Amino acid sequence: LPPFDPDDPLGIDDLLEPEDLAVRTTVRQWAADRVLPHIADWYERGELPGIRELTRELGSLGALGMSLTGYGCAGASAVQYGLACLELEAADSGIRSLVSVQGSLAMYAIHRFGSEEQKQQWLPRMASGEVIGCFGLTEPDHGSDPAGMRTYAKRDGTDWVLTGRKMWITNGSVAGVAVVWARTDEGVRGFAVPTDAPGFSAPEIKHKWSLRASVTSELVLDEVRLPADAVLPEVTGLRGPLSCLSHARYGIIWGALGAARASFASALEYARTREQFGRPIGGFQLTQAKLADMAVELHKGVLLAHHLGRRMDAGRLRPEQVSFGKLNNVREAIEICRTARTILGANGISLEYPVMRHATNLESVLTYEGTVEMHQLVLGKALTGLDAFR
Ligand code: FAD
Predict the structure, then answer these.
(1) Is 369 a catalytic residue?
(2) ipTM for the complex?
(3) Among 172, 176, 236, 380, which one has the highest count of C-beta atoms within 10 angstroms of its own C-beta?
(4) Among protein residues, the one whose CA lies closest to atom 12 of ligand 1
């Protein structure tokens, strides 16, 4: 039998191809070099300095729009994309959020629903990291229920004129293009809005206690005039943004486990070396129970992510299955981080260790891309056939 590997107790790596392992190693190394040495400082300052350079480096790695094909995208498998998300989030959820929003929301929307001209105009520069994208769906008064959105686009001759506000938009203040969803006379439509358009502004949201190394913004659209060809032609209705969200949620199923893995590793190392009552705290049964339960949930989550990744690669992943994964893996990841925090005692609350940073980051991850309750309602509806949303 192969020996027991504490990093991979179930032997899940056996499911990976050599190319998958290469992607994982590359992204892990990049995060170790470029993010980990600075992240505590960035987090404390509430900034992501050098975001443009970091984004270009992520573009060089092929991590932006990674599972899309053509237009400079890497055309990687869903499993490889997932592995990259996990490695990025093991450094910080803010970095993974940057990549998710760029690739799975902004680029995915243009790739799936854009015209050939829009794809040519935006995607190669977004894949290289030259242009950052954001995705504006949430509004101050409409989060879980985007059907009530107030931002609207009206026709004026052949032009469109957009008015409204979007809230909590990742990458907003640094974006060169904003994919904005607005109501129109025909239903909800998506627009590729160049952020230098007159009437567009994106003030940054400050005073966050979560995802502090991530840019989060309000989008203000004050009669932004756009040419006819700014609308994404291939979709009308909420199906558009929801299918983008499904793609991004898939990455989060993997990503959240990165935060959990880093916190678990920190707690395991601490438990082995910290001594109380004359012996390492890892020798106490209560600590071992915590570590065993954390490892069980962490690696069950990885197995689930793998399973869903293979379904996505086979074109068989249903939205309800994405909800299943997002609900379980983010909820378990935050529990792992919180338990890790207890093992580190007082040191657990310090930025010297990563666990509290990961735990507070996951508070956002628990809420965005569909709250826990929304995914319970999706599954509840699928199980019972009864719609409990309203
Ligand atoms: P609400 O919808 O007001 O929900 C509040 C509470 O009520 C939740 O617990 C919710 O589950 C519960 N609730 C609501 N309806 C029901 C119901 N029917 N039954 C039971 N419970 C219910 N949005 C974007 O568009 N683009 C982004 O890039 C983006 N980035 C984000 C980054 C961060 C850091 C954060 C925190 C959020 C981001 N969001 C983004 C917004 C995010 O998607 C929303 O916050 C989320 O959808 C929830 O909306 P809300 O905050 O308005 O909460």
Answers:
(1) yes
(2) 0.99
(3) 172
(4) 373
